[in-house]
Amino acid sequence: MDVNTLKLKLTVSTLTAYHCFIQIQCAGYRA
């Protein structure tokens, strides 16, 4: 696995985690 692939996977996983966190926050505010 090369460095670019590793960076891409890390970026995607970070964005996914951040998106999930935002969704949880928004759901909490709506409740």
UniProtKB/TrEMBL annotation:
Domain of life: Eukaryota
Source organism per UniProt: Anguilla anguilla (European freshwater eel)
Protein name: Uncharacterized protein
